[in-house]
Amino acid sequence: MGGARRGRRARRAGGVGEGPRGGRARGPGGRRGPVRARPYPPVGAVVLVAGVAAAVAVAVSAVDAGGGSWLGAVSAPGQLFSWMAPTNWAAAVAGVLGADPVTALTATRTAGTLLAALLAAGVLVAQARGRTGATTALGLVLGAVVVLGPVLHPWYLLWALAPLACVPLPPRLRAALTGVVALFAVLVPPLAGDFSGRPMQLVAAYAGALLVVAVVGAVAAGTRARARAAAGSC
After folding, report:
1. Percent helix, strand and coil across the chain, each to the nearest 5
2. If you placed Cys at 159, which of 11, 33, 142, 179 could pair as Cys (CB 3.0 to 4.6 Å)?
């Protein structure tokens, strides 16, 4: 009995005691009660931070620095038909079927924007509740915005890949993401306009891209082979 008391006193003196997680602490009046940690930030704090961030973003984007504001120019890319964007495919199908492609394009782009907003909200809620990390949530939100946006260029995928590259994903998923980005990066010519009178620029660009992909593949294969050999020797 005396040994147990001395042990409890030693733990309290050393800073080891009944903590708030799963323990009981003294409340007002000296009564003991469970202490529960808040699993996610208060809703008011989240709304306040989001509101301030949105207000600052709109204010900065509306500033005209002489060449027009960002808000005034943001609609320019949406006036183009982007064959890589899934939200543009319905317009192509409507044109083949004889329907109005402009109406179909507007409807699918609006639906894509709403769906991206819903997915982003779901990811943020999951991140606030501790179901996913902040870096993973950032990559997923950027991926939803890019894929479901009105325009999709190959380099847009890097927005989502950069955060996801910092996340310990399963090897197969990481390889799939890398392969998709590498494939899309060489689908579109890297220079704007046509290549009349300068075809060698296009040939050199594709040759350089293929060389980079080959080198990366060789390095990855060599790394995997050395890892297997090291695992087999243990």
Report:
1. 65, 5, 30
2. 142
